[in-house]
Amino acid sequence: MIKSMTGFGKSTVRCPYGEITAEIKTLNNKSLSISCAPLDGFFLMEEKIKALFNGKVFRGKVFVRIARENAEKQKSLKKLVFNENLAREYIKKLKAAQKKVHVKGELDLKDIIALPGILEFENEKIEEKLWLYVKRAMNGAIKDLIDYREQEGARLAKDLKQRAGKVKKALGSVKKYAKKSVEEYRDKLKKTVAELSDKIELDKERLETEVALFARNCDITEEMIRLENHLANYANSLEGTEEDIGKKLDFIAQEMHREANTMSAKSNDFRISKAVIEIKSEVEKMREQLKNIE
To answer: Which domains does the chain carry?
Structure first.
């Protein structure tokens, strides 16, 4: 299945803590890279969030954002805890200090709660409950993302098939002119020799040797066969169900370009060179599109 590496997914889940919204954006990248912005103070969720992509997203730069909305009348994410033992210890030490330095005065509650560590926010117990809703929102956003990538991938696959068709058509022209090239060279050489020799008897053996040499130097049969095989492999891969197919398709396109370069270097026929330029042009466009394929 062809999937684009660019995409977007979003899902919102209602819960006792408000509305948990998960947003995912993906861009092109050679490998899988995930950046996550979890809810403030809940950084332990980050690894759990990244694990949800296993077996679902294989390549791309992934950005994840988790947000809580409409939380004004909902439960707080943080529990305020009064550290009674620490408060008692503070009071004990402060009263002892008063006696030592002979300072009078009473301790108010506002003085005590202002001391470090007396009032703290606690996340741990809430995080496990909250994770259930974050996970549900993330799974919905990932599904939305995959749907988006598949739709974009279908559009890219259509374009890639059309370009492969143009390469195949141009290769047909190369085959056509490659057959004619040797015969045309033989006729041209005969005509040239006849004109220069002023009707002197033509050395047929020498002529055939020159033609054979020309044919050997300009022979692109192997390159045409390999390019045809690459096209068949390319078409099968586009129609297949293999995941993470982008790298394979790009490798096949590289091989197509290599064969086209070799044909271009060997050919002495303008018509073949023109068709090869068309092949190289379409393969380059294919490779640009393949940068977007997962």
So the answer is: 7-74+125-150 (3.30.230), 79-122 (no CATH), 152-290 (no CATH)
Give phi and psi for 20, each to the nearest 5: -95, 120
Which stretches of the chain are assigned E, i.e. beta strand? 7-15, 18-27, 32-37, 60-69, 79-82, 119-122
Q: Is residue 22 within 8 Å of residue 66, measured between CB atoms?
A: yes
Helix (H, G, I), strand (E, B) or coil at 62: strand
Report long-range pairs for 120-123 (Cβ below 8 Å, ≥24 apart): 120/80, 120/81, 120/83, 121/41, 121/78, 121/79, 121/80, 121/81, 122/78, 122/79, 122/80, 122/81, 123/41, 123/42, 123/77, 123/78
Question: What pTM value is reported for the model?
Answer: 0.71
- Bridge partners of residue 20, in order along the sequence: 13, 68
Q: Which residues pair with 69 in a beta bridge?
A: 19
Regions of the chain where pLDDT drops below 50: none
- What is the per-residue pLDDT for 190? 55
217-231 as b/e: b if 16+ CB within 10 A: ebebeebbeebeebb
What is the identity of the amino acid at 57?
A: V
Helix, coil or strand: residue 39: coil
Q: What angle do CA 158, 163, 169 make, to 5 degrees?
A: 130
Residues 6+ apart with CB under 8 A from 64: 22, 23, 24, 34, 35, 36, 37, 49, 138
Q: Of all residues in the chain, what percent are helix, strand and coil, respectively (each to 5)?
A: 60, 15, 25
d(CA 11, CA 42): 19
CB 220 within 8 A of CB 264: no
User: Tens digits of per-residue pLDDT, 159-176?
Assistant: 999 999 999 999 999 888
Q: Cα-flanking dihedrals φ and ψ of residue 102, to 5°?
A: 60, 50
Question: Rg of the chain over CA atoms, in angstroms?
Answer: 36
